[in-house]
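We modelled the chain as a single entity of 207 amino acids. Its sequence is:
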Amino acid sequence: MFTGIIEQTGTVSKLEPLKGGLEIIIESKLASSLDVDDSVSINGVCHTVVKKAEGSFTVQSVEETLRKTSIGDLKEGSVVNLEDSLTMEKKLDGHIVQGHVDTTGVITEIEDEGANWLIHVKYSPEFAHLIVPRGSIAVDGISLTVARLEMDNFTLAIIPFTWDHTNMHQLKTGDRVNLEFDVLGKYVLRALETGYITPKTPGDISE
């Protein structure tokens, strides 16, 4: 489990094909706080550390992860967002992020407004019920707020700190990003769909 508050960025130093999957070596200062078998979020995707060296760590992505996320788009030299897993002592400054990506979106436009940047993201309308205006969403592992919303696209307002301290400033039109919708909303929707929660009509005070 994560918070969507990026602790460090890292650089992909090596990519090695692995029986349909991919082994990824990442150089980052965060390596010093990681151990083998720890969970780490890489661009919003939960991975397990399988090796560790001075200043770097290694993870492996299976075929399913490569198919459903943008991890397969990484190249040597790519900058990635990193977050260590949540502990009881860690502030929940963002929102609850599992590192289980729901789908990917595509950057359609980036606007520099001077004080901030507007990033427009297109996504499949089949996920429209999982996103709400001014709600939380994890984009490449970053906890962000939906500023504007339409059926197949949404807009993010990125402040300078987030722009400078994540890989946001390296994004360009056409890039894919990993999207994870708010897990609390998904549980509520699931309960409604299965009948465990029955919507009340106005004025209904029955148990």
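As a brief sanity check on the tokenised model: The two ends are 35 Å apart (CA to CA). The chain has a mean pLDDT of 93.
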